[in-house]
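Data deposition worksheet. Section B asks for the primary sequence of the deposited chain exactly as it was used as input, without tags or linkers unless they were present during the calculation. Section C holds the resulting structure in token form. Section D is free text for depositor observations; keep each observation to a single sentence. Incomplete worksheets are returned to the depositor.
Section A, Depositor: J.P.
Section B:
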Amino acid sequence: MTADLSQIVKAYDVRGVVPDQWDEALAGLFGAAFAEVTGAAAIVVGHDMRPSSPGLSRAFARGAADRGVDVTEIGLCSTDQLYYASGALNLPGAMFTASHNPAQYNGIKLCRAGAAPVGQDTGLTQIRELAERWLAQGAPEPVERPGTLSSRETLEDYAAHLRSLVDLTSIRPLKVVVDAGNGMGGHTVPSVFAGLPLTLVPMYFELDGTFPNHEANPLDPANLVDLQKRVPAEGADLGIAFDGDADRCFVVDENGDPVSPSAITALVAARELARNGGTGTVIHNLITSRTVPEVVRENGGTPVRTRVGHSFIKAEMARTGAIFGGEHSAHYYFKDFWNADTGMLAALHVLAALGGQEVPLSALVAQYDRYTGSGEINSTVADQAARLAAIRTAYEGRADVTLDDLDGLTVAGTDWWFNVRPSNTEPLLRLNAEARDEATMTKIRDEALAIIRG
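Section C:
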């Protein structure tokens, strides 16, 4: 096929429409290129439940095997299950998924041995360049001694490993509604939750990559509505929603109200610090709530602030030896999980915290939710740089305000802050604002939007 790889090879992964933008032939070239760039003797490959995933995954595996690489195929899995396999087997890995994107999309998340990320600056550019060359000149001839393809079950080992990282032995019985969104949570939750004192109410556990009930993207409030209604209707203690590849988890309390991912970050950070003797570094990106660094310090830890994006989080996790990291987008990273993100482990922490005491979840998380946030507000602009400069001009020089450029522009006062970041792919500016109270947040949000859209 003729393909524009600049459109599908993103900063952190491969993502595009099948078969319009890429197909099994191109997947085979990606497999061969991955083998060349990693120089690995063996790799592990897995896939989600999308109709195109098995074929793409097998083509990738064959492409790598043609370069002499032995391939372990683990079949249906969540993204964090693939990271588990990469870590436990100490092999580079490839996960075929388009996460929360609509059904016609598919993609590849790549990692080196031990689940170390492969992104634009860590191998993905070279993989793209090789695939482009082979697209133009023809695929390389298979090596004289091709690698082997073998299959391996990892689900139960993955589940046991997660349960070994959280003490759930003495929790009280809980009723939990889980919305898998017809994604890979329907595959992993029954095994991970097995043997725990839980009454599980499953929603949309049937694996179906056409997503017949709602998009598997809980970051969009529209996709949480079913769960929010079901939790109080069932008299459940909480609800948990997973995205399509089940590497992110979102939580709603007993009333059906969403719990901020920042509050979950703070809760898990406190637990991980306690587990590590009240010391350790915790990573958070710059648009998580101020609650997060406050809680980290209160529990003896050292907070480290990063740019938005999992490659930055993972790099800082490795650099600082951090025990935990969290993002506003509900990605949660654990040192004991090869610095990789796993929403399932975060969910187990929430269950352990709730089950270890008697108050409802809404009361438990109140201590971790101290500010009022705007959520992310996108504005289409003609000139991103000009609007950012206008914000800087409006606020610089004020004695009560600090500015920083870690990621976009952050403007902070005593009890409020806002951040404006340009999108890398669209003519958008993304605003996040937070303050101690609703009135202040509304005021600073509207001031910023007036300049952005002015």
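Section D:
The first strand starts at residue 14 and ends at 17.
The chain has four domains: 5-153, 157-256, 261-342+349-366, 372-452.
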